[in-house]
Predict the 3D structure of the following.
Amino acid sequence: MKTRYFLLTVLILLILNPNSKLSAQEKQQNYGKAPDEIFPYDKFVKPYKYHFLVPLQFYGAGREKLAPKDLTEVRVGFLGPLSGSVMVPQGKQMLQGATLAMEEANKNGGYKGLPYKLMIHNDVGLWGAAANEVVKMDDEKVWAFVGSIDDIVSHVALRAALKLEIFMVCTGDPDPTFTETNIPWTLRVISDDRQGIYSLVHQIYLKDGHSRIAVIRTGARYGRVAFKIFSENATRVGHPPVIEERFTDGETDFKTQLERIMVTNPDAILVWGNAKESALILQQMRAIGLKQPVYGSDRMVNPEFLKIAGNLAEGVVTTCQYNPESDNSKYKAFKTNYMKRFNEEPDVFAAHAYDGMNLLISAINKVGLNRVLIRDILTDRKTFQGFQGVTGKIVLDQSWNEIRDIFMAKVENGKFAFMPAPPLDMKERATIKTGTY
Amino acid sequence: MRKLIGRSQRKYSAIAVIVFGISSFGFTGLDKHPDSKDSKVKVIKDEVKPMPVYGHWRNFTTKDGLPSDKAYCVRIDGDRVLAGTHDGLAVYENGKWKTYTTKDGLPHNGIVSIDVSELTGDVWIGTLGGLSRWSGGKFENFSQLNSGMPNDLVYCVICDGKDVWVATGGGAGHYDTYTKEWEIFTEKNAPMHEPWTYGVSAGDGKIYIAAWGGGVIEYTTKTKKFKDYTDPDGEMEIDLLPDDGPVHDITTGTTWGDGYLWVSSYFGLCSYDGAHWKGYFDHDSGLASNFINFVRAKGPVVFICSDKGLSTTNGKSWVTYKKNDNNSDGMAIVKNYGRIDDSTPNKTTKEIPMSPSISHNFIIGVDEDKDVLWVATSSGISRGELLK
């Protein structure tokens, strides 16, 4: 009875309290599929405002615009690293994937009999080239575009895409902050580094039971953003990295960084960089006697890594946004056609560019030639939610970021073996492994 | 009353009242308002002028002579008005629009930003394909290739005395019109996280750069020193506390007026008085939307261009202009408080019908001078007058 009166009085007073309206916003679900245990500040205080819980709409004009009647082709843009970058091989694969999708669409009649045409733009040139290239696409009157891989390029392009109102399907940039810009003119068909890092944190600390992790990563933005997320989440599960070492893309001698890591005697080492540097680091690590288990970024899933690292790659664990060894008939057909057309195996950038271009063409075929309507249908999270691509089913969150389940990849017998990443259960605890390596 | 509630119940109620008191103090204690007595900086005084309300709207589209309905910016220049559209520069003078394009010498038809030099009267035009100085009837063009400009897509240009500043996708640029030299500021030589910038403004001897992903970069022109302001929680998916700093690191614009720096983002608005930050969101204030394209302060009033209407505030009250979805009418929504937790005793919301209203709710640019307001929208340009 007493308790009832007490609670009733508190309830009435809280309702009357004018300041109660300033209390923290209710959270519906965690952004980015983050488990409660690693959501920022969740153990201590409710944030005042949660972002990315509700998809942003575009309230501008343009839906009323009619398609031009004198078109002879339907232009779709491509933005990628095609020259002047260490990412050119990946850019070439990405272009080939997009080209194959477009060629197939044209074989099937194009857009109401009009052929699709790819307007190709290199994103590496003058400083900030991506912005200028998107302006050129607007001048060329493209209806939408796919791009890119590098995170700086993608950000610059996206900002221009908003200004010019051209939809951008991101097929190769896994930078989590790309969709965290809150710009309703993009979607991403490749899982971001957040998903890969959550899985790695789970694997390294909770499944494999390590506690003292050294990190060596590229100094590029790709490494900086990834390390921030890894470090925060490792700390949230109780084990901040013991050391962070950096290198420059293109660097070949990592002795200084590895010697500093050796002093800390870590349980395991996380390598975050492009395939070539990661392989060289692995070689030099073993050469100086660092025998710890090695984990890495998805960019290791590359023939170049296996070729350079050789036998030393055995046991390396990383993540992959899809399963390149999938038995899925759609993926197998894509792989066969791709190899027939380009005489090489598709990589992650080719497969996702193929999916991204198919998504874009499907959207144009459904709503016609109007940029805002193309945006609307691609972002409604109904029409293309669950779109079956060759890389798997596309699952978009409220910020139009791809959040489907990813794969763990482990080098076994000279090649990567892929298995679904286990569901993230940060409550799970393995026996902590410690020891001197 | 004593008969209705027993002694023990009164005791528990008293405990509850104390809990309530502590919790209330906690809430208000979190929010130290800039005009608190210990504030060392200039504050908006209690006797602030009421917020101006504009009406008698007149709207302009291609039917009235604009080169495009999609307008990016607008700038009042004495008796004329300069408007940037997707298809050219439109100048309104003597009741008529005249269009200037690449055929007249502009570097690109997409006109994104305009400012007028108080020193020389020159018009500086930021386009999708370079910067242009319109002087003596001629366009002098600056690009990455012919000058030291950081990037050809000029999101924002401002004049500050003899200096011209641009915010571009490749960094911020400073052009000294006396020495004719450019300086570029990126993450290499300024405390930006990334090279790309989106807005720039001047005030109180400082330049404020809206750095995409890097919050606000403050540059003191005398000392040439930088200082950065970022969201202290360091997370993209939340704002931990509304008044702990910029509401987000991805900023879209800055503007300075009457002792306050205002910062816009796609996640809300915030103000800074030199000591305290204060955040405003659509759920706790009169802000039309958290998605803000542009901000411009004129004295104590800031004009906020959002995707759901034009909001104006002085931090104490709000007026938001919105057009109806189904006709050309709309309303001005007046709120007599700054934020839902402020000390205004009787918080009210009043709607003033407007016929016609602004041209479109997706607002991209704004300027005000001599009681006349010009608004650039996604579909047309609007002109309003101060309602007496």
